[in-house]
Design a protein that fits this description.
Elements (H helix, E strand, L loop, with lengths): L1 H19 L3 E6 L6 E2 L2 E2 L2 H6 L9 E6 L10 H17 L3 E7 L5 H11 L6 E4 L12 H12 L9 E5 L2 E4 L4 E2 L8 E2 L7 E3 L4 E3 L21 E5 L7 H8 L5 E6 L7 H12 L4 E5 L20 E2 L5 H11 L6 H10 L1
Parallel strand pairs: 1-4, 1-5, 5-6, 6-7, 13-14, 14-15, 15-16
Antiparallel strand pairs: 2-3, 7-8, 8-11, 9-10, 11-12
Amino acid sequence: MRLIALLAFACLTGAPHAQDKLPLIKIVATGGTIANTPSGRLHAGDVAEAIPQLKKVARLEVEEVMRVGSSAITLEQWLTLARRINEIFAREPEVKGVVVTHGSNTVEETAYFLSLTVKSDKPVVLTAAQRQFTTLSSDSPKNFLQAVRVAAADEARGKGALVVTNDVINAARDVSKNISYRVETYSSRDIGALGFVDDDRVTFYRAPTKATGGFDIARLQKLPRVDIVYTYADADGALIEAAVAQAKAEGLVIAGFPTGSGTPAMDEAVKRVIAKGVPVVMTNRGGMGRVTETAARAGEKRPLIYGDNLTPQKARILLMLALTKTRDPPELQKIFETY
């Protein structure tokens, strides 16, 4: 009996001591389905408390920077979030990584913005959910747990911001949400996942090669306005002209045909706004493949910046940040080739 009592005492006293040795992960919550229930939104701390497995992975500190549906998140809130994460890494060196809980609709955009603006090489892992926290077969608890496991993994360092859902690790630059409600919605399409989160370990099979963290937003009060114009059969240039003349866009992204072009009427409108000093980035609406000048159209010398394989929404983010540094088209093109 005495031996049993001593073993029980050792377990009780050893557990807190063992947890002290676990890595410290900061949870920075923004809202979204991952913290939502049919009766309302939960505080991220309540979500964490409801997942007992977390206590075996890391020590958690939870703070809510905002509580907002991802469809309503603003550029000002992006700036706030990036500044807070930079502040955490600068002032709290014991923090091994940050997990950002987020709504699913814009998590890919927030992730890419953070990948470009967070100055530390420590992991920033975003996660989201397709099903509310307390509903049948919710993916919220598992995604939360797996995101913390990735943030605590030594191998996650130096890979920019990551999106972790459904046991898959995707790079912020490459990932997109592709299905409305199914849990396998996130993928990096033709680029592929970085790795996986299995029961026994976190495994990375590759690392991103594009640069991260190149933009300083510490003193930035607002971002330049950049709008996206979608290409479709027989589209004219009215929306391009209106974005500049009426909305006062400082840059444009064209979601072009998959070959990287607009209609002839759009091309003429693009030339007119570029002549006014407004940079225009060409991407493709298909979501996969690089966009570049083709041999067939090289003679036209279209005055465009090419968005490589970025989706239109990612190209918008990069152009907004790039315009805080330069408006020179060759320099902007170099930025798109770098990031």
